């Protein structure tokens, strides 16, 4: 799966996550929310194909024509992987979910790529859930500093990650496509150029 190999080459990583984001965009437009984006669900084929798997816990968005058929009990179930879960998903309130819930999962997968750890690692389930609700985690560069090592990735990539992981969904990328476009701009150097112009 994605990131079996730590320190994956940056542009390859961006390409992989862009493909996942565009897959999610396709699903979101059709009213489907994945709810369990994590590295283990991102598979790479022998020819470089990118697959997003495990749609078994997906749900429907309110504008989907079959939304009214969702089982009310399932709307109250804790679904997903807590270590990669956005704060709003931990409250078990289906009405809080949106496409930005999956954007958080993209950021959490990027976080793992930058640190080899999920945003909320280890511990008892209840403890992890409580940490998820706070939305507090160590920034990727802090993980490396704690090991006495320099952060080996560009700062802009960390900024993309942290924006996607904002506790407030309104502060995240507002769609999976926006996240994909940020990675594309980083890969082409457009974000760095923009930063230099702002500094000038």
Keywords:
4 strands; 5% strand; two-stranded antiparallel ribbon; mainly alpha; 200 residues
What secondary-structure arrangement, pairings included, does this model have?
Elements: H1 10-29, E1 32-33, E2 42-44, E3 50-52, E4 59-60, H2 99-115, H3 125-134, H4 140-146, H5 155-164, H6 176-188, H7 190-199
Antiparallel strand pairs: 1-4, 2-3
Helix pairs in contact: 1-2, 1-6, 2-5, 5-6
Characterise this structure.
By secondary structure, the chain is mainly α. Helix content is 44%, strand content 5%. The strands form two sheets. It has a two-stranded antiparallel sheet with strand order 1-4. A two-stranded antiparallel sheet has the order 2-3. A hairpin with a 5-residue loop joins strand 2 and strand 3. The longest helix is centred in the N-terminal third of the chain and has 20 residues, at 10-29. The model has no long low-confidence stretch (mean pLDDT 91).
From N to C, what is the helix and strand string? Answer: HEEEEHHHHHH
Question: How much beta, percentage-wise?
Answer: 5-15%
Instruction: Determine the mean pLDDT.
Output: 91
Q: How many DSSP-defined strands?
A: 4
Q: Looking across the biggest beta sheet, what order are the strands in?
A: 1-4
What global shape is seen?
globular
N/C terminus separation: 42 Å
Structural class: mainly alpha
Low-pLDDT runs = none
């Amino acid at each position: 799966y994605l990131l079996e190999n730590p320190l994956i080459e940056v542009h390859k990583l961006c390409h992989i996550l862009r493909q996942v984001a565009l897959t999610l965009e396709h699903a979101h437009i059709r009213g489907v929310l994945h709810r369990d984006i994590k590295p283990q669900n991102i598979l790479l084929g022998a020819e470089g194909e990118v697959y997003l798997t495990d749609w078994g816990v997906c749900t429907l968005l309110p504008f989907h024509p079959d939304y009214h058929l969702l089982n009310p009990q399932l709307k109250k179930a804790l679904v997903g992987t807590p270590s990669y879960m956005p704060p709003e998903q931990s409250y078990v309130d289906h009405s809080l979910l949106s496409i930005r819930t999956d954007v958080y999962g993209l950021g959490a997968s990027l976080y793992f790529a930058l640190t080899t750890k999920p945003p909320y690692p280890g511990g008892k389930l209840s403890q992890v859930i409580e940490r998820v609700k706070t939305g507090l985690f160590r920034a990727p560069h802090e993980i490396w500093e704690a090991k006495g090592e320099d952060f080996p990735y560009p700062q802009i990539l960390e900024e993309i990650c942290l924006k996607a992981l904002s506790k407030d969904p309104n502060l995240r990328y507002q769609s999976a496509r926006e996240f994909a476009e940020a990675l594309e701009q980083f890969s082409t150097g457009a974000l760095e150029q923009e930063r230099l112009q702002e500094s000038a």
